[in-house]
Amino acid sequence: MNTFVLVLALVAISSVYFTNDTFAEISENQVFLLEGSGFAVTEEFIKVSEIDLGLSSQDQRGSTINFLTEDGFITLDDEEFIISNLEGKFLREGKYIRLNGEIESPNGLDSSISFFGRLVDESKNGSIYGFTGRITTSDDTFKIIYTTKLSTLSKIVSTPIESEKSNINTVYILRGSSSQGIADSYIDVGSVKENSLAVQNANDPLRLRYFSQDRISIEPGTTITITNNDVVSHNVISGKENYGDRHDPFTPDGRISTGEILPGESVDILLGDAGFYRLYDPDYPWMKIIAYVFPDSDSLVFGNGQNLGN
């Protein structure tokens, strides 16, 4: 009975909350991050649920834009579901979102989701959506209520490390990153700090952490430079993130490996294939970057995320 009353209250609140008439500006060939949390409810259980998905918009037909879900996960309490085959649509140019498909549970069993989102409000760095729908597992069907943020990544002017590399874009490993501290506490006044600030949103309270950017979106075939401004050596490789595994958080995939980058040195890496790259330092796994590599984007796009090592 208590569960029913809570669900009824949540639905009543959300039905009012989701009626805003504003709409998001969505277009083709964009990369989006859909992040949020809420509750998944049955007659017997209420579970905390989180959603973290990378989306890429595709073709537009009228006011509808199709999108693909490239990477991400959904959680039910401590249980994490990896996306398997998800697709969806932005309806009425972003006023609504429909998301359907399959997810894979930790034990390898297929589950499914059916979500419908309504735009609540928007700001300069993202749009807020309220989602309702279902997660259907082999054991149960959960009704979900989420509040999420849909964000794109903001364009910046690339920062060259030397004149002959003016067309190469740079990601800085910030001083103090290896200690898992806030890099702003360790960074020297001067060019290092200026370079780091130049490629970040000055209003972002999470800036100056481990990398100067922790989410990048580029076209296939783009070269970026990784510059080590820390006091120890680093090695950046690519791999698959093992969500929830604290002992083995990543599995290398062999696509990218910088080798040892000594303090003060730089290494160029080529992101040649379309798709998602998760770049990290195996010695300091809280240091990670997600690279979204898709064709037909306008230019390099850098964004600030929550690269806090969790």
Oligomer: single chain
The backbone outline, from C-alpha atoms, is globular
User: What share of residues are in beta strands?
Assistant: over 45%
The CATH class of the largest domain turns out to be: Mainly Beta
CATH architecture of the largest domain: Beta Barrel
Overall number of domains: 2
| Order of helical and strand elements | HEEEEEEEEEHEEEEEEEE
Average pLDDT value?
Answer: 75
Total strands: the figure is 17
Task: Write a brief caption for the model.
The chain is mainly beta. It has 2 helices and 17 strands. The N terminus and C terminus are likely disordered.
Account of the protein in words:
The chain has 310 residues and is mainly β. The protein has 2 domains: 2-151, Porin (Beta Barrel), CATH 2.40.160; 163-303, Cupredoxins -  blue copper proteins (Immunoglobulin-like, Sandwich), CATH 2.60.40. The chain has 2 helices and 17 strands. The strands form 3 sheets. It has an 8-stranded antiparallel beta barrel. A hairpin with an 8-residue loop joins strand 12 and strand 13. It starts with a helix and ends in a 7-residue tail after the last strand. The model is unreliable at 3-23, 154-167, 182-208 and 297-310 (pLDDT under 50).
